Amino acid sequence: MTSELTVDEIELARVKILENGSELIQEAGILLVNRSYARSVALSLLAFEELSKIPIIVSAGGQLARGKPVNWKRVHSRMRNHSAKVRMALSIDPAVMVDPPPSRQQLIAWQTAKQRAAKTHNEKKNAALYSDLYAGVFIKPSDRFDRSDAERELEVAKSWFRVCELVEKEGQGSLEADSRKYEIELEAIEERLRKAIFGA
What we know:
This protein is mainly alpha-helical. 72% of the residues lie in helices and 3% in strands.
């Protein structure tokens, strides 16, 4: 049976997820300084995934606060699914970002890019942890990743953390049964994610 969460439990989960994401980023930085580049890449990617749980659980909390049914099995499944978490972080709707709205072809291209990014993320994480064939040669992770790789992934994780931290500071405690307040929080999340990812 899948556990159902209360509003208070969701609020606590938000705090713990953000704290764990921060710790993963700090440890990725330690590994980078100590020239363990592949493992630093892996932890940065894991931090990105961990922080991507926040929009998933906040969405469930909004439904709960407004008295709507929550599919807890699906919520828990998405929080454990690597690709689902990455897609969540890339799920900003381009139709609300540009004027005029994108064409159907552009929307299809956007969806394809998101799917490719989610797949690449998981492949890169596995490559940073396990020895495997790469370009026809069997190599270990430390042969494949260098300092620039570790620095790039750490900066992506830090940027995503800054977005989540800002949203959480402004949003904590707003999952009470006040639908308009929660809608405002969702709007704030969308706006900050849009600025963080697209710089506008």
